[in-house]
Amino acid sequence: MAQRYDIEKTPEGTWDIIDVFTGLPVVEVGVPLIDMPIEEADHLVDLLNSRDREQRDDT
């Protein structure tokens, strides 16, 4: 199963979480997941992909 979310480095050296299906930055609870340090982005992308897998498995 393809992973829905990935991280992308910005020109400033921070990281954004991108929805690979749309190419857009992810927004969770009204907060865009952009301009993060790599550790935070890496952790959050793992959580988002895990949640997405569970939701797709339930359908």
From TrEMBL:
<protein>
    <submittedName>
        <fullName>Uncharacterized protein</fullName>
    </submittedName>
</protein>
